[in-house]
Design brief:
The protein is α/β, with parallel strands linked by helices. The protein is built from 9 helices and 8 strands. The protein has one domain: Alpha-Beta Barrel (TIM Barrel), CATH 3.20.20.70. It has an 8-stranded parallel beta sheet. Strand 6, helix 7 and strand 7 form a beta-alpha-beta unit. The radius of gyration is 17 Å and the shape is globular. Its EC number is 5.3.1.1.
Length: 236
């Protein structure tokens, strides 16, 4: 079964998130769809959602703490209130825009690993690295595994070439297969692709060798589109 994940980033409100999750949940339930589906709302929209077992709501980010003096952050105290046990770690926007270092990413990973969280761990290269060829690309990606336990049982990987996120530029099928197959040779974990995935290309991408699903941003924010994405990949 394909794994399909929606990252809301800084989009949706508490009310529209609730409507979105309820609509998607109803569709999964009524159509007996078994795909693994994840939704990552903003932290202000987290709540106790009643969902089928294959629909999981997770956190886009949290600090490596239970509680404390970390202005603007949330910790497990806040996540526990809503029984959140799934988190995105290492997303390129946190690395490149917000300046999270590999050391900080690994610290966060290990904190949430110790608590048994399902972790979707993001990796990917910027355009200047991609232009240097596959060998340099893989070298760059493998550096993002420093300090990361790739044998962790609750780990899902997501390969997101930074140059393809929100740009409308999708990696070619060869680009995706080359990177995915190389990672799969080293690490035997589910591996999602992310980067300008859309309703009309998600089936083709998820059918590629070594691709176990998709982590989707922009194209997943309209509930009807996200349901169509789930429909397009439910039999893969």
């Amino acid at each position: 079964m394909a794994i399909i994940a929606s990252n809301f980033k800084t989009n949706h409100t508490r009310q529209t998130t609730k409507e979105f999750i309820q609509t998607v949940n109803k569709h999964l339930e009524e159509n007996s769809i078994l795909s693994e589906v994840y939704i990552f709302p903003t932290s202000t929209s987290l709540d106790n959602f009643n969902t089928v077992s294959n629909l999981t709501v997770g956190a886009q980010n949290a600090y490596a703490t239970n509680k404390g003096s970390f202005t603007g952050e949330i910790g497990t105290l806040q996540l526990d209130e809503f029984n959140i046990k799934t988190i995105l770690i290492g997303h390129s926007e946190r690395r490149h825009i917000l300046g999270e270092t590999q050391e900080q990413v690994a610290q966060k990973f290990n904190f949430y690993k110790e608590l048994g969280y399902k972790i979707i761990y993001c990796i990917g290269e910027p355009l200047e690295v991609k232009e240097q060829g596959l060998e340099k690309t893989l070298e760059y990606i493998y550096e993002q595994f420093v300090g990361i336990d790739t044998n962790y049982e609750n780990l899902i990987l997501a390969y997101e070439p930074v140059w393809a996120i929100g740009t409308g530029v999708t990696a070619t099928n060869d680009d995706i297969v080359n990177v995915h197959s190389a990672i799969k040779e080293k690490i035997s974990k589910p591996l999602l692709y992310g980067g300008s995935v859309k309703v009309n290309n998600v089936k083709e991408i998820c059918s590629l060798n070594g691709v176990d699903g998709a982590l989707i941003g922009t194209a997943s924010w309209i509930k009807e589109d996200f349901i169509e994405i789930i429909e397009n990949t439910k039999d893969i």
